[in-house]
């Protein structure tokens, strides 16, 4: 049983069904045909209209601000973020950083002099507060000159208690400066960080006798993310622009076609970004995907439209063929753009604000792209007189031979292709969701340091700080009571007990609160650093607290200044993921309940957990639901779209095989290579499904076009591949090449996103040309034409 390697005698499938496809186009709604005729006739008016819209769009587009800080991942109206803002109104807002001054002997006079100059410079900076063992000692002594004698006295003070060591301010080979930057947006943060770096450099930086001055913390991470994203953004679009130029010239061999492409693409992006600027939108860490998705989708649609247009048969008038091509591709292009819009619009279910916002903006960009592609591009085609294949032969003539190979091999290997793709998809699903008792689900990345470029100094400094400091993750235990309650002796005893319970918890690195500061004050006064057991001594400390709060800035960050009704403990730990934070939060609440049971004076006080650690935990908790819920919603809506576009039930299911195969196999690749889900890779499923479905839509649209002409399965496959196959191939190159530009990103998550997306698009295309035709042979139970012709017809009576 063999198949011919060439089509059967007689007209080719492309010729056999050309007439029927033209009839299909002519039978399109009259309003649609009239619309495209009107667009071509009114081409100059269309061009003028867009020329009027572009200047304000570009103006608003350049007004769009960006903020790539981690806390932007949480919506402004989120309960946890609202609670954080309320907390900051009481105790002040700020982002915490640490300067780690390392030296062989950190208490040497020269090292202390360097540290002293740094602190003095930092105090002169606006919106910057500093605290260290040295600053505490200096305030207690009313200032001092650093000499060998005073250095020895300071060393005795710093090492004579474990309070400073447990806070991470003192170590065997380092002293630390805790810095609070009172910043609220990108510009302020950048200015403050620049100021700190300048002070460190002017003071001598990491020159001997100092081994290193490591500057770490959330402000530095946020600045690094912003700069890396800003720096990489132009790189993405330059690479994509070069790719579009080379692809368009290589495929259509026409500068006029290239110009029509570039003008259309620039218009799509300008109008989309202009709208975002007009409504005051702010770009975030995931926002570079927005213009890239618009560019990729628009370019793919242009390839489909222009490929249909340039394939003008001999003897057919160009203007008649232009309207035919637009009408013939309208339904498929509209459905494909809608599929992409749905894929990203489904991200609206995400609890992560930038992802939800980006999804809705991409959906809007798809609507704008749909309008521009079917209005401006036809006008430009006409104005620029873009050539058809009658005037200039297009590239990739080899694709005709490839079509015959696909038809032949997809039938012979139909069972292997279908079974193999399903097996790979199942293994990919196991890699993502796990298998109870055997395989754990894929991990979610939440540690901000993993978003930093590994080769950067900040990454090395942060890793070093994680080794020697009690942690960089801060949770605030906010305690709210009535007027003056914090200064009551019984309450102070209870707060000290709570501090001790927290400090003894193995999940806690260190604790800082009002009772910690009171103990330091006692120690500075020449007393023990232990909490007094004598009631009179506690009463005296309560009185001292009331007198110190109005004058001591460090104490004001822990006790409400005027009413003394609220206080908090800063809990520093290594908990960065959701599970670790949940365990920590449960322990904190349990310690509070136990403390309240022992100290009834604490009963009126309400406990609430706030801070950056709870926000990061919420982000990690929201990543997996974002993936699952948005993906499920995308599948449902796209399937419903297919229900309307394709009448065949089998087609509705088969059309999703390549995309699902590519997505799940891509997750398998992530698992094998040790990659994790993060704020970028979490978007791959919706991105690939919404984008690669375009290919299947065009494939099936033309497959059914041939079937309506009463063609066989082989004839329908050949027609579909000849009309859309080459466009699918080059559209995949566009998708893969566009997202591969992200592989040049400085940030690891975006490099992974770019590489994995490109791989998924290629996998989807491979499935388009193997598993999909193979499944069609099986589902429709058809055979190649040569085999059908060789089989004798059943005898008739």
Topology at a glance:
Layout: H1 13-26, H2 30-41, H3 43-62, E1 65-66, H4 79-91, E2 95-102, H5 109-123, E3 128-132, H6 133-141, H7 148-159, H8 163-166, E4 174-181, H9 186-202, E5 212-217, H10 218-252, H11 255-278, E6 282-283, H12 289-310, H13 318-345, H14 353-373, H15 376-384, H16 399-412, H17 414-433, H18 457-468, E7 473-480, H19 489-504, E8 510-512, H20 514-524, H21 535-548, H22 553-556, E9 566-573, H23 578-598, E10 606-610, H24 612-645, H25 649-654, H26 657-673, H27 684-708, H28 713-740, H29 748-769, H30 771-779, H31 785-790
Parallel strand pairs: 1-6
Antiparallel strand pairs: 2-4, 2-5, 3-4, 7-9, 7-10, 8-9
Helix pairs in contact: 1-13, 2-13, 2-15, 3-11, 3-15, 5-9, 9-10, 10-11, 10-12, 10-28, 11-12, 11-14, 11-15, 12-13, 12-14, 12-28, 13-14, 13-24, 13-27, 16-28, 16-30, 17-26, 17-30, 19-23, 23-24, 24-27, 26-27, 26-29, 27-28, 27-29, 28-29
């Amino acid at each position: 049983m063999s198949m011919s390697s060439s089509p059967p005698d007689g007209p080719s499938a492309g010729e056999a069904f050309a007439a029927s496809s033209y009839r299909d186009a002519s039978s399109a709604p009259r309003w649609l045909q009239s619309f495209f005729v009107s667009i071509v006739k009114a081409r100059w008016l269309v061009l003028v209209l867009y020329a009027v819209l572009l200047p304000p769009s570009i103006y608003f587009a350049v007004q769009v601000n960006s903020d790539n800080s981690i806390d932007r991942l949480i919506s402004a109206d989120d309960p946890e973020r609202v609670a954080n803002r309320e907390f900051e109104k009481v105790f002040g807002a700020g982002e915490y950083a640490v300067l780690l001054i390392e030296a062989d002997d950190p208490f040497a006079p020269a090292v202390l002099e360097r540290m002293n100059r740094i602190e003095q410079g930092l105090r002169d900076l606006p919106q910057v507060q500093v605290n260290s063992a040295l600053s505490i000692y200096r305030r207690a002594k009313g200032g001092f000159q650093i000499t060998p004698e005073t250095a020895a006295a300071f060393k005795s003070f710093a090492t004579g208690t474990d309070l400073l060591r447990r806070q991470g301010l003192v170590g065997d080979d380092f002293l630390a400066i805790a810095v609070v930057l009172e910043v609220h947006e990108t510009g302020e943060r950048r200015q403050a960080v620049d100021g700190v770096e300048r002070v460190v450099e002017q003071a001598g930086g990491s020159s001997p006798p100092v081994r290193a001055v490591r500057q770490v913390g959330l402000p530095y991470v946020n600045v690094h993310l912003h700069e890396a994203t800003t720096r990489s953004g132009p790189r993405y679009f330059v690479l994509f622009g070069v790719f579009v130029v080379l692809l368009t010239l290589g495929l259509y061999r026409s500068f006029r076609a290239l110009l029509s492409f570039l003008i259309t693409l620039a218009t799509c992006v300008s109008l989309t970004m202009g709208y975002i600027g007009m409504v005051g939108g702010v770009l975030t860490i995931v926002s570079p995907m927005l213009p890239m998705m618009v560019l990729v989708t628009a370019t793919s649609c242009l390839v489909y439209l222009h490929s249909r247009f340039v394939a003008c048969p001999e003897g057919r008038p160009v203007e008649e063929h232009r309207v035919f091509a637009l009408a013939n591709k309208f339904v498929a292009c509209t459905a494909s753009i809608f599929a992409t819009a749905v894929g990203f619009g489904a991200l609206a279910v995400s609890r992560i604000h930038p992802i939800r916002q980006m999804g809705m903006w991409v959906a809007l960009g798809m609507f704008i792209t749909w309008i521009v592609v079917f209005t401006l591009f036809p006008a430009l085609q006409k104005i620029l007189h873009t050539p058809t294949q009658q005037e200039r032969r297009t590239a990739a003539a080899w694709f005709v031979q490839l079509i015959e190979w696909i038809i032949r091999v997809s039938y012979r290997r139909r069972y292997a292709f279908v079974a193999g793709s399903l097996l790979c998809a199942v293994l990919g699903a196991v890699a993502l969701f796990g298998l109870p008792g055997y395989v754990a689900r894929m991990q979610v990345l939440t540690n901000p340091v993993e978003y930093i470029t590994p080769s950067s100094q900040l990454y090395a400094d942060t890793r070093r700080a994680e080794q020697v400091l009690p942690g960089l993750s801060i949770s605030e235990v906010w305690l709210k009571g009535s007027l003056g309650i914090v200064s009551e002796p019984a309450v102070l005893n209870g707060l000290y007990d709570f501090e001790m319970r927290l400090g003894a918890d193995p999940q806690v690195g260190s604790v800082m609160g009002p009772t910690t500061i009171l103990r330091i004050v006692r120690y500075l006064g020449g007393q023990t650093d232990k909490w007094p057991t004598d009631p009179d001594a506690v009463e005296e400390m309560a009185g001292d607290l009331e007198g110190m709060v109005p004058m001591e800035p460090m104490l004001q960050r822990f006790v409400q200044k005027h009413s003394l009704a609220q206080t908090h403990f800063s809990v520093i730990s290594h908990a960065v993921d959701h599970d670790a934070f949940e365990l920590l939060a449960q322990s904190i609440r349990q310690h509070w309940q136990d403390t309240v049971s022992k100290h009834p004076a604490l009963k009126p006080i309400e406990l609430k957990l706030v801070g950056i650690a709870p926000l990061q935990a919420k982000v990690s908790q929201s990543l997996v639901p974002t993936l699952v819920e948005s993906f499920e919603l995308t599948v449902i809506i796209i399937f419903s779209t297919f229900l309307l576009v394709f009448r065949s039930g089998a087609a509705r299911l088969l059309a999703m095989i390549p995309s699902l195969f590519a997505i799940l196999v891509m997750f398998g690749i992530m698992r094998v290579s040790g990659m994790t889900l993060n704020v970028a890779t979490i978007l791959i499923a919706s991105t690939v499904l919404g984008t690669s479905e375009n290919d299947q839509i065009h494939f099936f649209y033309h497959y059914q076009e041939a079937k309506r002409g009463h063609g066989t399965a082989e004839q329908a496959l050949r027609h579909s591949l000849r009309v859309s196959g080459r466009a699918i191939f080059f559209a995949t190159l566009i998708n893969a090449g566009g997202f591969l530009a992200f592989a040049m990103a400085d940030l690891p998550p975006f490099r992974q996103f770019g590489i994995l997306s490109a791989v998924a698009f290629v996998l989807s295309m491979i499935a388009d040309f193997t598993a999909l035709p193979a499944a069609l042979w099986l589902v429709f139970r058809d055979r190649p034409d040569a085999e059908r012709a060789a089989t004798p017809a059943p005898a008739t009576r």
